[in-house]
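Look over this record as teaching material.
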Amino acid sequence: MIDCEQMVYVILALVSAMLFGLASPVAKPLLGSIGPLQLAGLFYLGAAIGVAPLLVKTKGNKNAGADAGNLTPSNIKRLAIALMSGGIAAPVCLLFGLKAASASSVSMWLSLEAIFTSLLASLLFREHLGRLGWIAVMGATFAAILLSVGEGVSGIAAGSFVAAACFFWALDNNVTALIDGISPARITLLKGIVAGTINFCVGFLIQPQTISISLIAAGLLVGAICYGLSLTLYIMAAQGMGAARSQILFATSPFWGVVFSGLILHETLSLVQLSAGIVLAGALTALLRDAHSHDHSHEHMAHTHMHRHDDGHHNHTHEGQPASLTHTHWHEHEPMSHAHPHWPDLHHRHDH
């Protein structure tokens, strides 16, 4: 079973999914006055605005300079791939998919993101998924398909575009999980600016419209909470447990959307949705039990990420702070070899 440190990342991923799931019922009333792409643009720009205070707050920290000044060429490359794939390519592909079919009819194709994320994580990014992990992937995918029962099946063209979008988001998930030279808040800021500007501009070119100040403010507020905070927490979780596991936990966002739709929009919970929730609960149980232990070695490394000092990997000390305190700053690791149960976090991307 998972330990206390791993549970922190599980909670971060679930809260991230909950906040993202809240976006749909909150955004539904806004869609009557704002086009989908313009609204998506406002959400992403709101995400950038929402995390900006976090960066201002840490500006005076003695370790803050490492956030931007300790970038390696590999981390810059990963960030560029994440911005191009998740911020530009994926939304454009999804747009073409939605143009070829209704939004509800392509919903089942979005479950491919979890599969693609897991496949890329296993084949290209040195993440280990055991038998229970793959059972969790298939269970989460089946639960998402159950949610779309009765919505119809999209055509080949629409499905191909949405599948391409899921692939680009899967690539984004994996490379973002490896970025350890930039804080999650700064990654969210950059993604929000890029994705927000592109979505809003493309939407305006397709369907020019005048948007009131109050609607713009509402869109930015939803974006700050449901996108900015959600994405920041997701990145923290992905760095701590790997892209595949964090994505499976994030797959609970549609179920949170169903719950909030009932609370906010008074929509009823169907038997199919309840069944899908039970399947997903079983998948998450399998996921949390999927860990392994073996002898492995750590090379010298220096990076920035959330950590504790009682996990066997972070041996530096802070005067007056308990070892169990979870915090984030730039730090270095000396080489070591040991064995313990682990997930594919930033310290455990070794071969098997």
